[in-house]
Structure of Nuclear receptor 2C2-associated protein:
Amino acid sequence: MASSLLCSETQSRVSSVLNRDVKQYGKKYMFDCNEDTCWNSDQGECQWVSLEFPNSVRVSELKVQFQGGFSAKTCRLEGCLKDKDFTVFPIQEAPVVDKVKIMFENSADFFGRIIVYSLDVLGEKAS
């Protein structure tokens, strides 16, 4: 049974924050369960979110809630074990990974901005 892989020990990074205003638009707002807050990227061609889990995992599902007009038309999922290079994988054939990177490609916004209200990664801890 798949469950959320995110926990207090999961480390996150993002490609950018709008005007570097992390107090108002920082990455933490994707995970705070508050529908009034969000991560807002700055403009750019390819925005991303990376997550490093405290234990190895196998991802089976992503849940992303975008702001209309500031979404990605396509997403690419990459993963790797600690100290290895990221590789692309289809979620149906997810390998065991310690890190994932979600690449938001082809933004619906002309300037390439992405707005995410919530993000969750579901799957299982690897044994």
About this structure: The beta strands are 3-4, 11-14, 39-40, 47-66, 72-80, 87-88, 97-107, 115-125. The domain at 3-125 is CATH 2.60.120.260 (Jelly Rolls). The first helix runs from residue 22 to 25.
